[in-house]
Amino acid sequence: MRLWDNAGALKRINSSLYLLAAVGLIAAAVMWMMNSPYFPVKLVKIDGDLHRLSATQLQQTAQRHIRGNIFKADLNEARQAFETLPWVAKVEVRRIWPDTVQIRVEERQPVARWEGGGLVDSEGKGFDAPTDENFPVFAGTPGMRKMMVEEFIEFQAILAPTNLKISRMDYSSRSSRELTLENGIRLHLGRADAQDRLRRFVRAWHEILQERAADVQYVDLRYKDGFAVRYKQGAANEDNNSKQQPQSGGHD
């Protein structure tokens, strides 16, 4: 049987040709829209709770990397460009029909300066950014940053009733903790039960230490149920070393 005598086959061929033609028209329409001058990006909208990133800097970055019409603009390139800005933690870029690109920026929240250079954000990530702001100093190994941020927030909350602030946190390679307060007093917390030991200091602060705060050099809280106080040289009417509520003698 010849093909033109097979009505079913001819019908299927016609349907396929119509389908191919439709696909071709759609593809041509898409290409035309992507290259058309009739759909330009007219507005770049930048949202976010921003304090350290300037609107000018963000707009200049957007202008350099968001080009062409709304369909052809390379949003992935724009997102990567924003992520290179020092104060940017996260960024989301999306198209809003018919002519807007929306950029949502999450700014880094600095918590501390890292000894040796750079800052540490609220996620425990190190980064470099220019700032004259005063932050506590963290000293340790880079892998400890996240833990140090989490414990800094805990420690500062525990100290809140005393109105004392942490100016420095030192963590040894074995996670032994030492805090330096803004008044210069050092607190040796050791490796274990750091939060409970700091609470013990808070109780002692209100009961006996606050009155002699100017004379205190450091407080060693590594004893099981007590602590030792070292006073500064020349502190009057007080032994240079005194131990409060001694128990079991050893510490970690």
UniProtKB/TrEMBL annotation:
Its main location: membrane. It is found in: Cell inner membrane; Membrane. It holds the Pfam family POTRA_1. Keywords: Cell cycle, Cell division, Cell inner membrane, Cell membrane, Membrane, Transmembrane, Transmembrane helix. The keyword Cell inner membrane applies. Coiled coil: none annotated. GO terms for biological process: cell septum assembly; FtsZ-dependent cytokinesis. InterPro entries: Cell_div_FtsQ/DivIB_C, FtsQ, FtsQ_C_sf, POTRA, POTRA_FtsQ_type. Residues 39-108 form the POTRA domain. The chain crosses the membrane at residues 16-34. Residues 233-252 are annotated as: Disordered. The keyword Cell cycle applies. PROSITE patterns: POTRA. It is a single-pass type II membrane protein. Residues 238-252 have a biased composition (Polar residues). GO terms for cellular component: cell division site; plasma membrane. Part of a complex composed of FtsB, FtsL and FtsQ. Essential cell division protein. May link together the upstream cell division proteins, which are predominantly cytoplasmic, with the downstream cell division proteins, which are predominantly periplasmic. May control correct divisome assembly. Belongs to the FtsQ/DivIB family. FtsQ subfamily. This is Cell division protein FtsQ. It comes from Eikenella halliae.
